[in-house]
Amino acid sequence: MADLPKDPADNSTNTEAPRRKRKPIGWSMIFIAVLVAISVALVWRRDGIHGVTEILFSDLELFGGILPRVLAGCLLGAFIAEVLPHDKISRSLGPESGLRGLLISTAFGAILPGGPFTVYPVAAALLTVGADFGAAIALVVSWTLIGYGRAIAWELPILGTDFTLWRIALSLPIPILAGALGRIVYGHLHPKGTTK
Fold first, then answer.
1. Which domain holds residue 158?
2. Is the pLDDT of residue 118 over 90?
3. 104 and 73 within one domain
4. What is the number of other CB atoms lying within 10 angstroms of the CB of residue 110?
5. Does some domain include residue 12?
6. Angle of helix 86-93 relative to helix 98-111, nearest 10 degrees?
7. Could you tell me if 112 and 67 lie in one domain?
């Protein structure tokens, strides 16, 4: 079938980076499946079928509660990947963004609300639209160490202001250092011009 002529009004160029294909079943999935099979066999041997079904129904209930949050986080990541301008994200958080990119990622991670169901899809979306591994590492480490939600909900009321402020101040350089180290290691593993 012949190619259709290009619309002269369409001046868009496809400059987006190709998306990485993900395997649905990898070594980690196989490892977890083997551990589950062994655990089922051990519980069956000790408690019989009743023990296995009780755990199964309890886990299905837990899964039902978590699934909406996982879905919302994945949708958030997918929409962020489509909405954010790839060229601006690549300039601001890409490999050439230097210290400024790591600082932006650290600040964003510190103020990002939500739990892992939000943070990890957002980090994956940023990787998809041009952020480098260092920026994504800085974001996740910053959310883990500096995230305001944990400080407000737990640290301030239980450990007090002095502890919280000192802990945050001492944690501030860690996401930047982790991101810089991530850039160095990733750069050595994947030099420019090689495929991912």
1. 85-189
2. no
3. no
4. 19
5. no
6. 110
7. no
Decide if 10 is inside a domain. no
**Cβ atoms of residues 151 and 111 within 8 Å:** no
Q: Closest Cα to residue 109, out of 96, 126, 97?
A: 126
CB 106 within 8 A of CB 175: yes
Output the CA torsion 182→183→186→189 (10° steps): -120
CA distances from 7 to 3, 10, 11, 15 (A): 12, 5, 8, 18
Mean pLDDT of 41-65: 90
Looking at the fold, whether 58 and 98 belong to one and the same domain comes out as no
Q: By C-alpha distance, which of 128, 135, 122 is closest to 96?
A: 135
pLDDT digits 0-9 by tens, 94-110: 888 889 999 999 999 99
Residue 5 in tokens: 């002529």
Does one domain contain both 89 and 169? yes
- In SS3 terms, 147-185 reads as CHHHHHHHHHHHHHHHHHHHHHHHHCHHHHHHHHHHHHH
Which one is predicted more confidently, 28 or 20?
A: 28
Residues 6+ apart with CB under 8 A from 2: none
